Amino acid sequence: MEPKMQLVAHYDSSVDQRVEDTDVTTNLRSWHGRSTPHHRHLKSAHRILIIVGWGTLLPVGVVIARYFQKYPMQWNEWYSFHIMFQSTGYVLGTIGWLIGILAGITSPKQLHADKPDRILGIIIFTFTTIQMLAFTWQPKKLEQGEEHYYRKGWVICHHFLGYVLIALIIAEIFQGIKDQRHATNWKWIYVGILGVLGLIVISLEILRWVRSKIFGEAIRLNSNMYTSSP
To answer: Where is the Cytochrome b561 domain (predicted)?
Structure first.
């Protein structure tokens, strides 16, 4: 009877050990997947910098280049402010993107959930870097009326990539907001920002159209006056 009792005691202790190991593993997994306050702060900083940098300052830079270069409003300092907004937006957005990568490294589950957001982030970072480098690559302006075809091609590519980037940035921000705490609040904040930018763009576009009509009509009247004179 004594050997059997020892065997039972040995079996019971091994079962307890396995249960204890399982509990420890479960607790570790639970702790690893838990969202700590530090992690939440990183995610909030990531989203704020993305919205302010890529989502707001970059579009403002585009608006300055489109509407204050020549038409409908000519502003001599437009290029300096265009560069300032684009550079600041690029730096802030890139820092926010890097913070988002660091915040997601500690959570494999979160990394899998953020996959579309991360892919869009990589594409946006690549394209914005190309746009920033394009400022140093642009061909020099020639005399009036002698614009080189290389510069025309550069201008077309620069403008096209800029508009594509704005669409990708908006998509990336709304994609990332879905997985944030208080997602509805984040969404309406950015909708408000887009609404303000949209109203500014619509107003400037209407002004551009009205002034083009007035300018075209003035040219037509002027040409008619000269052709009708003896």
So the answer is: 8-213
Per the CB < 8 A criterion, the answer to whether 170 and 55 are in contact is yes
Cβ atoms of residues 177 and 190 within 8 Å: yes
* Distance separating alpha carbons of residues 96 and 47, to the nearest angstrom: 7
Phi-psi domain of 180 (left: phi exceeds 0; alpha: psi -120 through 50; beta: other): beta
Give me the architecture of the 39-228 domain, per CATH: Up-down Bundle (1.20)
Biggest CA pair distance of the chain: 135
pLDDT tens readout for residues 158-213 = 889 999 999 999 999 998 887 667 788 889 999 999 999 999 999 999 988 888 77
CA pair distance 168, 124, nearest whole angstrom: 7
Domain limits, the chain: 39-228
What distance in Å separates the CA atoms of residue 78 and residue 64, rounded to the nearest whole number? 6
Instruction: Specify the amino acid at residue 80.
Output: S
Six token digits for residue 130: 């190309």
C-alpha Rg value of the chain to the nearest Å: 29
